Amino acid sequence: MYAGSIPVLMEDYLERLKKGSLKLYALEDELPAARAVQVRREFIEQETGVQLPVVGSFTIAADRAATKNCENMIGAVQVPLGVAGPLPVRGEYAQGSYYVPLATTEGALVASVNRGCNAISRAGGAETRIIRDGMTRAPVFAARDVPHAKAVCDWVLSHKAQIAEAAESTTSHGQLTGITTSIGGTSVFVRMEFDTKDAMGMNMVTIASSKAAELIGAATGARLIALSGNMCTDKKPAAVNVVLGRGRSVAAGIHLPDPLIREVLKTDARTLADVNTRKNLVGSARAGSLGFNAHAANIVAAIFIACGQDPAHVVEGSLAMTTVDLVDDGVYVAVTLPSLPVGTVGGGTAIDTQKECLRLLGVDGGGDPPGTHAKAFAEIIAGAVLAGELSLIGALGAKHLARAHQQLSR
Q1: From CA 133, how far away is CA 135, in angstroms rounded?
Q2: Quick one: which of 308, 299, 253 has its CA closest to 129?
Q3: Known active-site residue 148
Q4: What is the CATH number of domain 81-133+243-407?
Q5: Residue 402: is its pLDDT beyond 90?
Q6: Neighbour-count burial of 196, counting CB atoms closer than 10 A to its CB (0-12 exposed, 13-18 middle, 19+ buried)
Q7: What value does the mean pLDDT take over residues 218-238?
């Protein structure tokens, strides 16, 4: 049964991997997922001389993760998980008080968001609204010449219903809600926007857009070059997402009276406004940034990792703008996130630990009616980003930033 301390069966698989007669990615074809992960990790340990006992100790279900979420799985990397809150949210979809899960290795982040949650709580809760909702995919076609490119655009815009019928034939949930076109020489970009309900929706819209692209190519003679032409724009900072939005476009705001600013943030209204204007607005513009905020990406990333979102979409979630308006008795602070690709079904949301974090927020799985969970999730994220912005702007205004980081050993 055993050869030394290694079962003969494992030894056989390891030998086949070393000889190349068995590929690492094919282990799940012959073994249960958990066993395949173990054999693959043992092979990597032998090949590199590095032992991975902690990587190999995890509680998530390998049969799901190794077959749906991660190829060549050898274990799991654990990220510390904290909570900030309670965060009261007064939205159209999120209405209540939430403990927000934040997965991070950055000391001081959770404490900072927690302080912002305290300010929001004492001010009565964050006002949140979904501004628009639509996931995009933009195929690029090659036209023969400029007149042909214009003709392709004209055909697309005059046949929206036909394109929608083709696209929606691939999904029982997605709906085509908008089409825009643009030309770059002989390149034609068709940016299609879909309502994806509770899914973040990238797979859904990619499949639907493929069917639509077939129709467009056949009808116009344009040659499909790539199903994604980077006008979507996916996982890259882009002005089109700031202007038109992508995923869930959401905003959150709070009125802070002067006494609360002094007591919680240790500064005053005019200082908050000055810091925001000179740092987040003028400083970001001078740097050529597409994000006009203090650290929105910090909060978006921590929630994304905790709740099974695609971390690469943090680049879009960071395209946020923070504003501070002086009012008679204090300030009104708001954050606007035009491009927040989030979902509560599909992808990493089904991994056990991430699903628990979504359950903590009351938004795991599909909503009733469909789409309400994802919208509520987006509103909660916006409220958490607002908390983070309040805390950091306040710390900068009070000159407390360096001291806080020293105290929390960042």
Answers
A1: 7
A2: 253
A3: no
A4: 3.90.770.10
A5: no
A6: buried
A7: 97
Element (H, E) at 155: helix 146-158
- Domain spans in the chain, listed from the N-terminal domain onward: 17-78, 81-133+243-407, 139-226
Tokens 């469909």 belong to which residue?
Answer: 370
**Same-fold call for 81-133+243-407 versus 139-226:** no
Task: Count other C-beta atoms under 10 Å from residue 288's C-beta.
Answer: 6
pLDDT tens-digit readout, 67-108: 999 999 999 999 999 999 999 999 999 999 999 999 999 999
Mean pLDDT of 340-359: 97
In this prediction, residue 2 has a pLDDT band, given cuts at 50, 70 and 90, of: very low
**8 A C-beta contact, residue 142 and residue 186:** yes
DSSP codes joined into one string, 202-253: HHHHHHHHHHHHHHHHHHH-PEEEES--SSS--SS--HHHHHH-EEEEEEEE
Count how many Cα atoms sit within 13 Å of the Cα of residue 104 in the half-sphere of its side chain.
22
Active site residue 310: yes
Backbone φ and ψ of 159, nearest 5°: -130, 40
**Candidates 11, 45, 106, 258; catalytic one:** 106
- Taking alpha carbons only, the member of 250, 259, 334 closest to residue 300 is 250
The strand pair at 126-137 and 187-195 is best described as antiparallel
Question: Three-state SS for 331?
Answer: strand
pLDDT at 33: 96
Whose structure tokens read 């879009």?
Answer: 316
Cα–Cα distances (Å) from 218 to 144, 164, 212, in that order, read 14, 15, 10
Q: Which of 310, 325, 356, 400 is catalytic?
A: 310
Cα(81)–Cα(60) distance, rounded to whole angstroms?
15
CATH code that applies to domain 139-226: 3.30.70.420
Closest CA to 10 of 44, 33, 38: 38
Phi and psi at 365, nearest 5°, equal: 75, -170
What tokens were used for 209?
Answer: 């857009």
Nearest C-alpha neighbor of 397 from the set 301, 337, 324? 324
Structure tokens at 47: 């090949």
DSSP for 176-197 reads EEEEEEEEETTEEEEEEEEE-T
Token digits of residue 359: 């359950």
CA distance 314 to 85: 22
Of the pLDDT bands very low, low, confident and very high (cuts 50, 70, 90), residue 400 is confident
